[in-house]
């Protein structure tokens, strides 16, 4: 794996065209790293998609007017439709819960709840549009840690399989999932109800322990100032973003700013675990659910205080209290 990553960094650093042998070599290493076994009839398509993405990555990384880098990852041989299939686009809606509207400057210049022990390792939703369940468990896990001092990992699959108010692999809003978890008396521990990247028959009776939360609070819509104070005071926050762009698909490092992003057409739920500054650029620390092979070990630094880029502050929510039963 390390050999492939080094090779890709090397070829991305130069502007000279790659030869067909170069492409073939890198594609073979890509297939090894990501365990790709194509049918004979799709081999040419996947190779073409890989080449196209590699060319775009090299072109993007040669630019001096952008603040982030792109790179090869598990989506580099996917079609546009395949990528969009894991981003369930749902009409924007809000709950009638109380609103956090504190827009005063936070007391801390930087916040990172990972360093405080409130964030579980990066997970992987696979080819299922279940990001909303990962965003839900992420904010529950963080709130639970703050309230109890213990970091528990909660089950996404129980929510996906059992929550009849949501749509399994076809999406949902995290606030609805938080309401459902409360009404059901809690969510299973991950170890008792492991994740499968499909919606299956509900098996919540197999749980030995559950984590429960009471109530939730919305963060003032469109307000990055309110999101900052909420993250500092309340821990990891469930947020929804526009992740539909190629630049997000192939993001690797740096502060992500996409001028074509929408702040209202949101299609991906993630977890905001803090904020900071890199080379003068303010950013949000965002945990994704696409494994550590994507982005910066599974994370993305998203532009902060740049007119709510990609909708980071449009639909944010956190549970009021959580505990492990």
UniProtKB/TrEMBL annotation:
Cross-referenced InterPro entries: Papain-like_cys_pep_sf, Pept_asp_AS, Pept_cys_AS, Peptidase_C1A, Peptidase_C1A_C, Peptidase_C1A_papain-like, Prot_inhib_I29
Domain Cathepsin propeptide inhibitor, chain residue ranges per copy: 27-83
Keywords, in A-Z order: Disulfide bond, Signal
Gene3D superfamilies per record: Cysteine proteinases
Domain Peptidase C1A papain C-terminal: 107-320
Record's signal peptide: 1-15
Superkingdom of the source species: Eukaryota
Cited Pfam families: Inhibitor_I29, Peptidase_C1
Protein family: Belongs to the peptidase C1 family.
Stated name of the protein: Cathepsin l1
Higher taxonomy: Eukaryota, Metamonada, Anaeramoebidae, Anaeramoeba
């Amino acid at each position: 794996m390390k050999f492939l990553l080094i090779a890709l960094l090397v070829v991305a650093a130069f502007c000279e065209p790659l030869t067909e042998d170069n492409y073939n070599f890198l594609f073979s290493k890509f297939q090894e790293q990501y365990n790709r076994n194509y049918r004979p009839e799709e081999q040419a398509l996947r190779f073409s998609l890989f080449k196209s993405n590699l060319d775009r990555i090299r072109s993007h990384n040669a630019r001096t007017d952008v603040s982030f880098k792109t790179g090869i990852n598990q989506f580099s041989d996917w079609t546009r439709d395949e990528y969009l299939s894991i981003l369930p686009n749902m009409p924007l809606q809000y709950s009638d819960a109380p609103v956090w509207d504190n827009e005063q400057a936070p007391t801390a210049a930087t916040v990172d709840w990972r360093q405080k022990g409130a964030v579980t390792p990066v997970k992987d939703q696979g080819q299922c549009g279940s990001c909303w369940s990962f965003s839900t468990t992420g904010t529950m896990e963080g709130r639970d840690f703050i309230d109890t001092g213990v970091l528990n990992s909660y089950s996404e699959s129980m929510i996906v399989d059992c929550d009849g108010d949501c749509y399994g692999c076809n999406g949902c809003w995290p606030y609805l999932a938080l309401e459902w978890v409360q009404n059901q008396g809690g969510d299973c521990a991950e170890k008792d109800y492991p994740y499968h990247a499909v919606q299956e028959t509900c098996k919540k009776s197999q749980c030995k322990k559950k984590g429960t939360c009471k109530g939730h609070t919305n963060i003032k819509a469109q307000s990055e100032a309110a999101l900052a104070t909420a993250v500092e005071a309340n821990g990891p926050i469930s947020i929804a973003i526009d992740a539909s762009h190629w630049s997000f698909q192939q993001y690797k490092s740096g502060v992500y700013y996409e001028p074509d992003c929408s702040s209202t057409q949101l299609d991906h739920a993630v977890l905001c675990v803090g904020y900071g500054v890199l080379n003068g650029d303010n950013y949000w620390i965002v945990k994704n659910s696409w494994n550590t092979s994507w982005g910066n070990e599974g994370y993305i630094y998203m532009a902060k205080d740049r007119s709510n880029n990609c909708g980071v502050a449009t639909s944010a929510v956190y549970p009021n209290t959580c505990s492990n039963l």
